[in-house]
């Protein structure tokens, strides 16, 4: 495993981050969850990403328990605030001072730690003045409850405004956490150049396009039982449904010869591809079984030569989403309740 600086800070994170968005909670056996965390550590992963809203706070609790016997100084723990938690009351979401202060205290309690390394604004809050949000974040840092701050899925303009306020307040905005994969490249035109100027790194989520880039979903065939794809239509997940289109699945299957020529699985190819972007410090992977994690992480540092990169672009072509305005389009227009 390699460890790289996050943004313009001195903090180093592992190139692969273990995330527990969908893998720690009421539908996952705790023993399996603990085994995945142990496997992550054995692979050299030191950075763990979660959020208070994942499984309505339970994901944080499981991660805190799984890491309780690890040396805290050897870990980087990232969590987030914004999405609704608890009974989903009128102040149980957003980036108000009230919710941020209550949120960090709850997260620290569940994670069994005195501080998190990066405290992230899970989305942009259109109902709270940005100045209020950044002042509250600065106070969290000054109180020693977080060392740095980050954001997730902010537009280029929001990032510029946030970074400017952070500098005025004497704190460091070091990271953005956007979706990014071979199929979803909306950050490339505006967000990435802006972040390079501001000294902000990307920690990308869903580099496997929610499992589609593993090749397990075949065009014109029923998704495997128990997979996310099997329930995509019923669950109403718009992004996963976008990826589950037959033409997209056909193009993904055409990537197999590219992966085979490099001695990689499709999952390994997808992860290595995401990490080739120079502004991507790390990519988040999740797993419900240790063997899944070991397989996908095995090829993270594979070299994808220019001709293979060009072939990937040629194959995927018009099924790739590149429009920068999709960052704003996918963002909540008001706080979720």
Automatic annotation (TrEMBL):
Under the heading CDD domains, the entry gives: Aldo_ket_red_shaker-like
Segments spanning the bilayer are none
**Which InterPro entries does this chain map to?**
K_chnl_volt-dep_bsu_KCNAB-rel, NAD(P)_OxRdtase_dom_sf, NADP_OxRdtase_dom
Question: Would the keyword Ion transport be found if you checked this record's keyword annotation?
Answer: no
Where do the NADP-dependent oxidoreductase domain residues begin and end?
A: 16-316
Keywords, comma-separated and alphabetical: NADP, Oxidoreductase
Q: Which family does it belong to?
A: Belongs to the shaker potassium channel beta subunit family.
- What is the protein named? Aldo/keto reductase
Question: What is this organism's lineage?
Answer: Bacteria, Bacillati, Actinomycetota, Actinomycetes, Micromonosporales
